[in-house]
Design a protein that fits this description.
transmembrane helix; ABC-type transporter activity; elongated; lipid transporter activity; membrane; transmembrane; 10 helices
Length: about 290
Amino acid sequence: MGTASNQLKIMLRKNFLLKIRHPFVTSAEILLPTVVMLLLIAVRTQVDTQIHPAQPHIQKDLFVEVGKGVSPNIQQVLESLLEKGEHLAFAPDTNETKLMIDVMSTKFPLLKLVSVVYKDEVELETYISSEAYGTCNQARNCSNPKIKGAVVFHEQGPQSFDYSIRLNHTWAFSGFPDVTTIMDTNGPFLNDLELGVSPVPTMQYSFSGFFTLQQMVDSYIIFISQQSDLNSSIKSEDLPLPGFYDTNFSSRIPWTRFNPAHIRIAPFPTREYTDDQFQSIVKEVMGIL
């Protein structure tokens, strides 16, 4: 213990002697940090911190119209599914689900050819994760089809409807979509340092047909909710909707009757952020900040 104490005293005395023998260097070591700190304090007191609120981006050139342009319409989605041998899944297997497919098929007959109904959500997920998934997706009436998307109902009316849409991301070309670019306002992939609007998430939902599928389901829900004589206990093949056996039904009733004629999607608003002018000033001369 005594040896360590003596060594410390010797080192401190040596350092002291070096300092007093070089007064200019010693003064610089004390004064320069002090001057820099005083300058930073002076700059800090002269600048303000500006808070930028969340900003919407309602601009015509940023809109994506559902069913037009980069967003395929319902008929194009169904034709693509049929051409590629892919299917659209529905769950659960109830009279309401079968009724929806029957009703929608009067407007879009291809839906009958590409739709497959699963008993429930668990059965759907079990099949998708199984080794048999998509093993014969090109064959007609195949029990192991490739699923492009799925509509899973949690409530099916008559007063309340709740559903979720799921898409198979293998539709995308290489690197798109990226999980880090999916619309995320408060998740692990959110980048607080990225400013400005990003059209990528909106384009992902458009290219994939998500918006189109959502429009189709919402239109059916709006339509079916207006049918006061609907009886969900009737078998799905006995459509309790007047006029659906009419062969001219598709031509007489426009698809847009049950939903807005034009649906445009704007990019998600940018988050609120704080602009600290002090950081912008000092970073030019002090890269460490």
